[in-house]
Design brief:
It is a single chain. With about 550 residues, the chain is an alpha/beta fold. It folds into 3 domains: about 140 residues, 5'-nuclease (Rossmann fold); about 70 residues, no CATH class; about 210 residues, Rossmann fold (3-Layer(aba) Sandwich). It is about 30% helix and about 15% strand. It is built from 17 helices and 21 strands. The strands form 4 sheets. It has a 6-stranded mixed beta sheet. The protein is globular. The N and C termini lie far apart (about 80 Å).
């Protein structure tokens, strides 16, 4: 309560008669609290109607003794409001679940223990046994198994394993749950008889036993194995997929890099517009509600008059700066003899030829020109403008069919069968439309090809760790078959003056356990959007041949 105000004048000494005839002080008045039920109320006329729990009216005034410290603490207005709400509507608290982890989840993500937020994690004994079998080797699965074992050892150290181990005591503040181990035998009668010698079936027995022991707790099995989840559901066990590595749930929600502006764009965003020219480029400074949804280096276009094809340069809340782009569809702006055949290819060439754009991702189906555009821009900036001193091409070596066996030779000779697309595009870039030179096989053509090949290096991803590329044009082909960790390993190899181009088709993923939502290509597209030195474009229109276009649609 606030302190009384300071006296404005000095006090006076009263006589005995003045003290005797002075009015008696009334005791302080107090509001009736829910805990004070014995207080004597003062009747008032008229009597107000009783207040509802959500609409609290004025409390009756009571005569009481001088106030004392209440038994219950005084509630704030916010707490009173919540308390009143709980009288009429039960507020369901955050439901804390217990997730039983399958081995493949731990092998998929070594840090998955700390990504379940406030929920608890349970690890069966059979999972620890399987981790022990997977820890040997140099593969990513073996590395994850060893890392999980290190995490578990650090968590168990000096902790009571019987009471549960807090997952955040190692510094992972996002993990607010506890870790539990199987410390006793858990057996239960399943509705369907299944063999007990299989590790997956042993995990199902453990989950079913936990459900019987804790019927009031929500228990779910987390597994990356689809068949495991199907077996669990047939037994009435709730299951979930480990989706923390999924960037998106639907590939249609992936950032495309270009958007069509609404028809009323100029009416809603053209007020107080500023425009200027600099180095042959026209800039527009607009403001409106759509500006907050734009990303830097995103392409925008309108099909209504007046038409606009521009690139977003700056975004600031409800303001944005747009800049016109170079028309690479015109022959005077050709890139190593290649011109853009559609609007999306024009967008891609603007990104590839921009030296300020360090990272470019190209997404599209087969035949859209991803490799051709990337290679043409790389040759132009390496041999003509000499912005880069070398072209490095790599790709994920995942076969479509069965392996053909050991490949002899050096690193580049082993990678040669995987670089058929490189040879095909080099032939297109070098020959152009002059087919007679292909028949003549003259010395000039061979000498030119030798110069081009001397600036192109084909490298394997297996030997990328620890390298640093300086002033290189790095092309990562078939990037949809890479995991997020592999993609991070490659992108972090970039040194000063290096440009990285990632391209692929997420509809053609050949790597097991990878989906459109968890692919490394999807991962970098989502993480790099909006960064001022990166760009992305999705190519939809095929330019290979009418046969290939029809096959993509019909097959």
């Amino acid at each position: 309560m606030p302190l009384p105000s300071l006296p404005s004048k000095l006090g006076e000494i009263l006589s005995a008669d003045e003290i005797k005839h002075a009015p008696k002080a009334t005791p302080p008045k107090q509001v009736l609290k829910p805990t004070q039920t014995k207080a004597k109320t003062v009747t008032a006329s008229p009597t107000p109607p009783p207040a509802t729990p959500l609409e609290t009216g004025p409390a009756p005034i009571v005569e009481s003794a001088p106030p004392t410290t209440p038994a219950t603490p005084r509630l704030s207005n916010k707490k009173k409001k919540n308390q009143a709400k709980s009288v009429t509507e039960p507020v369901s608290p955050s439901i804390k679940k217990l997730f039983v982890l399958d081995t493949n989840v731990l092998l998929h993500d070594a840090n998955c223990l700390f990504k379940f937020e406030e929920h608890d994690v349970f690890i069966p004994m059979i999972v620890l046994e399987e981790l022990d079998h997977q820890k040997k080797g140099l593969s990513e699965v073996a590395r994850n198994a060893r890392q999980v074992s290190r995490h578990l050892e650090a968590l168990v150290d000096d902790q009571d394993i019987h009471q549960g181990i807090a997952l955040n005591h190692l510094g992972h503040i996002e993990a607010r749950g506890q870790l539990f181990f199987q410390i006793s035998a858990l057996e239960s009668k399943l509705p369907i008889e299944i063999p007990k010698g299989v590790a997956d079936n042993a995990i199902l027995h453990v989950v079913h036993a936990l459900q019987n022991q804790h019927p009031d707790k929500q228990i779910a099995l987390v597994s990356k194995d689809i068949n495991m989840r199907l077996k669990a559901r047939t037994l009435g066990i709730p299951t979930e997929d480990y989706r923390h590595d999924h960037v998106i749930d639907d590939s249609d929600l992936l950032f495309s890099g270009a958007r069509e502006l609404p028809d009323d764009f100029w009416q809603t965003h053209g007020h107080n517009m500023e425009s200027w020219q600099q180095n042959g480029i026209t800039y527009y400074k607009i403001q409106g509600s759509l500006c907050s949804e734009l990303y830097v280096n995103e392409f925008v276009y309108t099909n209504q008059e007046p038409g606009l094809i521009a690139q977003v340069k700056q975004v600031n809340t409800n303001k944005a700066v747009l800049a016109t782009i170079r028309d690479y569809s015109h022959n005077k702006n050709n890139v190593w003899g290649i011109t853009a055949r559609n609007q999306e290819q024009n967008f891609a060439l603007n990104l590839l030829m921009n030296p300020d754009c360090d990272f470019v991702s190209l997404l599209g189906q087969a035949g859209t020109g991803k490799t051709l555009l990337a290679l043409a821009s790389a040759l132009t900036q390496t041999l003509e403008t000499q912005l880069y001193n070398e072209i490095i091409i790599t790709r994920a070596t995942v076969p479509v069919g069965d392996e053909i066996g050991f490949l002899p030779g050096t690193e580049e000779e082993k990678m040669a069968p995987w670089m058929g697309a490189l040879e095909d595009n080099l032939e297109v870039l070098h020959l152009g439309n002059n087919r007679l030179s292909a028949l003549k096989q003259d010395a000039n053509r061979n000498a030119t090809m030798d110069i081009i090949r001397s600036h192109i290096k084909v490298k394997s991803m297996s030997f990328m760790r620890g390298r640093t590329f300086q002033n290189k044009f790095l092309i990562i082909d078939e990037a949809q078959n890479l995991t997020s960790k592999q993609m991070k390993t490659l992108v972090t190899r970039a040194g000063p003056g290096t440009k990285i181009v990632c391209m692929g088709n997420i509809a053609q993923i050949d790597t097991p356990y990878l989906t459109e939502g968890s692919s490394g290509l999807t991962y970098v597209v989502d993480r790099f959007k909006g960064w001022p030195h990166s760009g992305h474009i999705t190519l939809h229109r095929g330019e290979r041949s009418r046969l290939a276009d029809y096959a993509n649609e019909a097959l």
